[in-house]
Protein: tRNA (guanine(37)-N(1))-methyltransferase
Organism: miscellaneous Crenarchaeota group-1 archaeon SG8-32-1
Amino acid sequence: MPTVICLKVPKRLGEQSILLVKEIELLNPNLQISQTENWLLIPLVSEPSNDALIKLKKLTTFELSVCDLPERQRRHTTHIEVLKYKLHPTQLKHVPRAIDFVGDIAIVEVPDELSGYKKEIGQAILKSHKQTVTVLAKSGIVEGVYRIRDLEVIAGENKTTTMYKEYDCQYHVDVAKAFFSPRLSTEHNRVTSLVKEGESVVDLFAGVGPFVIPIAKKQKNVQVFAIDINPDAVALLRRNVVLNRVEKQVVSILGDARKIVKKNLLGKADQVIMNLPETALEFVDVACDAIKPEGGIIHYYCFVKNSKPLEIAKAQLVKAVNQNNRQVTSFLFAKTVREVAPYTYQVVVDAVLQ
């Protein structure tokens, strides 16, 4: 068995740890994840860099060890390998490697160079991912007040609805009618861990509930106000609230966050979630209004096109908060969630307001 560096974590942190190692691109796909009585051993492709170690520190307990781990038995080929004999090598290099899996649906972005091969790419994904029954191709950007994009069925069943599981929660999702990103799973879990018993949380753009539902499941004595302007998203949110048995903690509200906060939620929140990166800056005043007079925390998501995205995001947030007669007293956390285009990043900043 090959000897490699591995991440040793308690079994209770297994799912969170595997997702995190995948996110920072350290998971060794050629070796099996193994376990002892109390620990999980996750093979790494290399020793973590300083930046990677910083990200790993969000795990409450972990060790780096040298382990002998068995090689993974490959059960199927990748979609790239399926296409190897169907596309020219110059075309093959343009085949998308990144695929979003939402339940049994796969979502992929097919570049213009391969627009005539969508069906072949879709069939290859179905063949290489047996749990997938539908493959959708992105046909546009996320846009509009409802934050949805056009999607095209390129293989499998003609559907956009599915069931998605994340940590201990389940969600009804319609990827054509309400925004949902499985790439934010680590963020959903991280923010959930910051909410304390007895607190009140306002999610200004709740979608189908990936932030508010785990918060309510983890802390029984919390009040969560989940707002969204998209009626389809709120309909799914309400189904998910019932599905996850958090009716007592979650109040789902259909409407414009600005109007709802002004009318019903002024000064109610210990924490405010602002996952609308396209236009979150325009709603900082709403978050300031929602936070309790004595202060609280906002989780601010935005897009930044700059080589120093964290510094820019912090500066923009401080300026906007000051303009609304409040101040940022400290930053609890800041990181780039992902690169969405060359030198364009999705950023999250957790800020304490007074």
